[in-house]
Amino acid sequence: MRLGEIELQHLGFINHLAINQRRLRSFLSNFTMADVEVVDPKKCLEESCKPKCVKPLLEYQACVKRVQGDKSGHKHCTGQYFDYWQCVDKCVGPKLFAELK
């Protein structure tokens, strides 16, 4: 091989590397945002507020025990369930909107 042919091969190889490097960057740029795990602040705030709502939770759990043996399907604990989540939401609401501002 002559020196000119070697230089041309070298330039072709460098060009090939540059093209592949651009492709790799383009490919990797698609994944950078997907790799970031987003955490829902509402879920975290709910967990911190649940201990403040023990009374409605205990009322709901007591209701569940009472109606467990009901075969008719007429008894339910919907009211106690919503009372519990209303307590949690009342605690979460101001904290969540403070984070959004």
Would you kindly provide a written description of the structure presented here, covering whatever features stand out?
It is a peripheral membrane protein. Pfam families: UCR_hinge. Keywords: Disulfide bond, Electron transport, Membrane, Mitochondrion, Mitochondrion inner membrane, Respiratory chain, Transport. This is Complex III subunit VI. This protein is mainly alpha-helical. It has two domains: 1-37; 41-100, Helix Hairpins (Orthogonal Bundle), CATH 1.10.287. It is built from four helices and no strands. It has helices at residues 3-29, 41-49, 54-67, 78-100. Helix 3 (54-67) packs antiparallel against helix 4. The chain is elongated and about 70 Å long. The chain starts with a helix and ends with a helix. 3% of the residues are buried. The mean pLDDT is 79.
Descriptive key words:
single chain; 101 residues; mainly alpha; Helix Hairpins; 72% helix
Layout of secondary structure:
Blueprint: H1 3-29, H2 41-49, H3 54-67, H4 78-100
Helix pairs in contact: 2-4, 3-4
Please provide a brief summary of the model.
Keywords: Disulfide bond, Electron transport, Membrane, Mitochondrion, Mitochondrion inner membrane, Respiratory chain, Transport. The protein has 101 residues and is an all-alpha fold.
CATH architecture grouping of the largest domain: Orthogonal Bundle
Point out poorly predicted stretches: none
Q: Give the CATH level 1 class of the largest domain.
A: Mainly Alpha
Indicate the proportion of strand residues.
under 5%
**Element-level helix/strand string:** HHHH
Strand segment tally: 0
Largest sheet, strands/sense/barrel: none
Principal-axis shape equals elongated
| Distance between the first and last residues' Cα | 69 Å
Q: In angstroms, what is the radius of gyration?
A: 31 Å
The fold-level CATH name of the largest domain is Helix Hairpins
Number of self-contained structural domains: 2
**Category by helix and strand content:** mainly alpha
> Can you give the mean pLDDT?
79
The amount of helix comes to over 70%
Q: In DSSP terms, counting alpha (H) and pi (I) runs of 4 or more, how many helices?
A: 4
